[in-house]
């Protein structure tokens, strides 16, 4: 069974080579390879999750023992994260295939999408399975390289700017990460997690606190925790819908996973627990207030992302079995629901030509299926019973009450307020985009939506031909518009102009519906899920099974 551990990393990397070799000449083969490999990764991840319930699994690549070799470890937490992430990435891939075929995007940028996406999946799996800090860093860098390609597909101005911001922030966190790894190795002579768990106890409090603070900073940036989350609302909304969905839903949880792993395995005792609780409260409140102020759906969802990361940090800050278990439940819930909401945002953009809520309306009547696909995850993320969002929030609040400290009680109150404001936000979206009558400025079916760069260039060229100054046409709200009417929006994966449709492609609808069903399954399987996460939390806090599995002869 241990031989299966490296496959979630190796299979996507192998498929990347095949996908690059196929290129646009064999685009059907390229799609088949991507879907087949991710399906195989789903099956392997489920097997690993079930097997890890009997104890951690490990493999030393090249048969080199720590600290020389590369160690990959699958325990309950990593097995669960692998399973959820592989299911979500498969659904997003199918969604992207439907969008690409509907837009007839067959040129080079879309051909690059598949290899970049497979590399991203491999990087995510590498971080979940990494048994040492160095390979955790390698997983981060694999994700960074592929993320920049995916964020900038098509080379449009907004995407290049957003991708540049993302890369700068990621490189800064990578530098901090490398320094933390260097300090750790200099102080202990190893970067293997199991060995570090034993050797950190012998170091001075100052050294361990410094390393802990640096790692929390790195993982906080990855997880989009306040106050290092300002890059999220500017980076995510410009990317293609499937890219935004997997980034917002999954990549931020990689940072949360790393916080769970290191805080329990390397830094027991919860020395910085109060700091984490303060950060959690700030993320909740400031994030949701930012969402309240937004009128663009993608930016609104980006702010709710920041806010709900606070719930997970809340559980990590409590650092007890109930808190860690609640945090894991909420991570699983949020990966799926946040991804679903961004996929729905892509469908809304395709139907109405924009995600600006002031320009949308009447979707409940004109697109009832789309309305249902939004309503279910919206109620889920707001924490309405009996959805998994309610179960996760209730578990965290009960853990806070059981903790009994003043700060924990403040977090319970902050969690309640954040949940109510989240409900207000999703109701606002529902009222503006779905319930009210269709506004006069909404794009009709068949409207060709062009990119901002195309329209700006066209307008500037026309003005130059007439001898006047270059001016981009705008409406009364300062939003660029096409000379023939309609808001300027680019919705295709490669940034091409697309045509709004009354009925979104069935493949996109099916993939979105699959993520909705996956989110609902957490409610149906709430008992087994809660039991599994509770055992996972116990295993994380005990530490012994992980250490013995990695260091056994």
Describe the model.
The protein has 553 residues and is mostly helical. A two-stranded antiparallel sheet has the order 1-2. Strands 3-4 form a two-stranded antiparallel ribbon. It contains 21 helices and 4 strands. α3 (76-103) packs parallel to α13 (321-352), α10 (241-265) runs antiparallel to α13 and α12 (297-318) runs antiparallel to α17 (406-435). Residues 446-491 have low confidence and may be disordered. The two termini are 18 Å apart. The chain crosses the membrane at residues 6-25, 32-52, 77-98, 110-130, 136-154, 166-187, 207-232, 239-260, 272-293, 300-318, 324-348, 369-387, 407-427, 509-531.
Sequence of strands across the biggest β-sheet:
1-2
Main beta-sheet annotation: 2 strands, antiparallel
Percent helix range = over 70%
Mean pLDDT, rounded to whole units?
Answer: 83
Q: What pattern of helices and strands is seen along the backbone?
A: HHEEHHHHHHHHHHHHHHHEHEHHH
Detail the poorly predicted runs.
446-491
Got a strand count? 4
| Rg | 23 Å
Family: Belongs to the CPA3 antiporters (TC 2.A.63) subunit D family.
GO biological process, one term: ATP synthesis coupled electron transport
Subcellular location: Cell membrane; Membrane
Main location: membrane
Could you list some keywords that capture this structure?
two-stranded antiparallel ribbon; globular; transmembrane helix; membrane; NADH dehydrogenase (ubiquinone) activity; two-stranded antiparallel sheet; CPA3_Na-H_Antiporter_D; 21 helices
